[in-house]
Amino acid sequence: MASAEQLQRVAQEQLTLAEPPSKKPESENGSSKPAATVSLMNRVGGFSWEVLDSAKTTNASTQRIDCLVVTTKAHHTTEALRQVVPRLDHQSVVLLLQNGMGIYEELQNTFYSSSANGKYNAPFFLQGTTTHGCYRSHPFHVVHAGQGGLWVGTPDIESAQRLDTSPTLNSSVRTLLDQLYTLPLGVRWESTFQLQARLWKKLAVNACINPLTAHFDCLNGALLDDVSCTSLIHALCTESSAIIQHHLGLIWDQKARGQWSSTDELAHIDVPLLQSQFTPDALVSQVQLVCQQTASNVSSMRQDMRAGRSTEINYINGYVVTLATRYNLPCSTHRQILQWFR
């Protein structure tokens, strides 16, 4: 990854990366450094970045944003976006790249829940998930620690249909994807349901590895060597499985009742086959595999805990609890995990 000095040497471009504006940048040990006092518009690999200072407005910081890539922590996303919402419109494209789930819904409810707040001026949202590994050595310097992939798609069927019927949006999304494809990220476009399934699977894995490594202050691989940890992994995966299976079952019921047209993306999804990927045993096996593959890694939540920062727990185990409450399903182990972080 490029350093801040390298970033400043490259030219301006149309894409913007958002960072949370509400706090000064923190180093890994929790100390802070002065925030930038000017707006910088620079480019790396086709993407521009801009350091926003809420106390100082420049011409650059009022320009309309065509494409926005949000790479903040999940719990910083709403505040990060708040500062640039006036610069987004219905033709803007926003790609959300975070751990956890529920961020898209939160942004919709916060900024675009009514026509008065700009419901009909909402940008077009995309979601993504990645298996690349990285860590921040100091502000504006991220070390790429592991090669992986990046999957991008629409967050719901309504968005997919909107994309299919809007040439302008299609062009804007293509511009973003073209820029992503130029980077060595292994970028792939996925259908809505494929992406959501990938997000659910990652959520189930993160709901085990992140809080357990943070709470017990251990490396990922150490979870498999402790009986109490493996017991918790089984309990968490059993609860996650029931919740995800119920969610998929509701979608299957819609298909069985003929609520989808033959051209609908979901009409071609084999939901029972997909459900088989979310059995308790399948999820436990996935957690074990990730622990083995990343045995010497320090999870992001453990890094946050050790640095005294807030964590993404509400968007990982908290989201599972939210679904369990919605569907009236048991979720005592995930609730217990949440209490560890209160």
UniProtKB/TrEMBL annotation:
It holds the Pfam family ApbA. InterPro entries: 6-PGluconate_DH-like_C_sf, 6PGD_dom2, ApbA, Ketopantoate_reductase, KPA_reductase, KPR_N, NAD(P)-bd_dom_sf. Residues 1-35 are annotated as: Disordered. Gene3D superfamilies: N-(1-d-carboxylethyl)-l-norvaline Dehydrogenase, domain 2 (1.10.1040.10), NAD(P)-binding Rossmann-like Domain (3.40.50.720). Its EC number is 1.1.1.169. The keyword Oxidoreductase applies. GO terms for molecular function: 2-dehydropantoate 2-reductase activity; NADP binding. Residues 1-15 have a biased composition (Polar residues). It is an enzyme of class 1 (oxidoreductase). It comes from the Eukaryota. Residues 195-340 form the Ketopantoate reductase C-terminal domain. Residues 54-154 form the Ketopantoate reductase N-terminal domain. Keywords: NADP, Oxidoreductase. It catalyses: (R)-pantoate + NADP(+) = 2-dehydropantoate + NADPH + H(+). Catalyzes the NADPH-dependent reduction of ketopantoate into pantoic acid. NCBIfam families: apbA_panE (TIGR00745). This is 2-dehydropantoate 2-reductase. The lineage of its organism: Eukaryota, Fungi, Fungi incertae sedis, Zoopagomycota, Kickxellomycotina. The gene is PAN5_1.
